Amino acid sequence: MEVIEVKDRGQQRQFLDFRRKLYKESSLYVDNNLFLIQELFAGKTSFVNDKDIYAFNVKDSNNIVCQGLVVYASDLSDYIQLCFFESLEGQDEAAKLLVDKAIEIGKKHNCKKLVIGLNGHVNYGLGLLCDHYDEKNTFSSAANPKFYNDYFDKMDLEKVYLCTYRSVTDHTRIERYASLLRKIKKNYEFRSFDKKRFDEYSKIYTDLNNQAFEGHRYYYKRNYKEDKEMLKELFLFMKEDSLVFAFKDGEPVGFVMWYPDYNELAKGGEVFGAKHFFRNIFMGRKIKYGKLMEYGVLPRHRKSGLVMGLLDQVYIAMQGHGIQNLVSSWILEENADSNSVCQALCDEKYKRYVVYEKEI
Amino acid sequence: MLDEFKKLMKEQYDIDNIELSSNFKTDFDLSSFDFIELICLVEERYGIEMDEDDYKSLTTVEDMITYIQEKLVSNH
After folding, report:
1. What is the pLDDT of residue A229?
2. Residue A142 needs a FRET pair 20 to 30 A away by CA distance; which of A107, A132, A164, B55 works?
3. In B, which residues are within 8 Å of A341 by CB distance?
4. Is the reported ipTM for this assembly greater than 0.90?
5. Residues A54, A19: Cα–Cα separation, whole Å
């Protein structure tokens, strides 16, 4: 068994083919990350700047049994990241070899910790699934069988848990805060993303993210170019009301992003792509769930209840699109504030995820 | 004022057994959002504006009522 670094196009093709086959044969999950990995290989995204990215296939008798990317980001220099891990079943040894390789690279970069489950940046995914394994993943969320967790559970790693929530958006939950919403609407202005002013609004998004998430576990600052690229791709199918900003006296102070769960348009085993989006437009296939992706409020505005105003905008937008239900993206279980928001508005906790860490 | 406040709490949260010493979090289990909603209701009901920096000190019913009374006096 050996760990082989992916260095040429042929090996990249093998890497991607293994992943495609794995998803196709399991028929459970939708692959939302293949295109991102392709872009990383091709160097076609500004995300690769200031990062050292290594891809590895672990082979047994010349067959790939396990793979992943190892990423070192200079702005998150304490961590070496093992990302986009995929494997056949029964490959404990291969998984351990890959983890050891990541640690070896981490030591070369003087990292203090290995993290497994962070996909380069929190914007590209955080956490391995650790329950509800038999359900299709929501758009852009982690998807893996239980045996991935079994591999890492045997390796004496620390765990950081994340959770999600889901709900039926009958709006009565948020209407409970009618007085608060009246006050918020009086004091703040809400505006959707304006594609005609793409650069300007994209910069607002980056600045708000960087300020709102400063100090958030695993978060590191993004630059304008990275987020503009990401938003250009998202807005291929997202509508402008999927990204809403709050302004106070003309200054941006908060934002919220949501979108329909596009994975409902795809079957398990498929790589999500444009054809799925066209199913929505041309075949009128309805999407049942909206996914609350992220929200952020500048620290000085956090006691005002502004987040409730932002979520009210999400509900209004969802109802405008005929979407009845809400599912959230991940929230760190240690984040009491965000959990209290979702507990106030959602029917139930939903999937749980885990990030593995090890001091090196 | 206590009777009026008790009525407000009953209407909004269906809470009985309200004493001056009652704590919003430990006795009524109000979440942070419920508490901010209560603040907004009080502002609307009494026509006052409450400073965000003061929220933390309003832990009991007595704290709240005293605060409301002080605000009403300063408004006049």
Report:
1. 92
2. A107
3. 33
4. no
5. 16
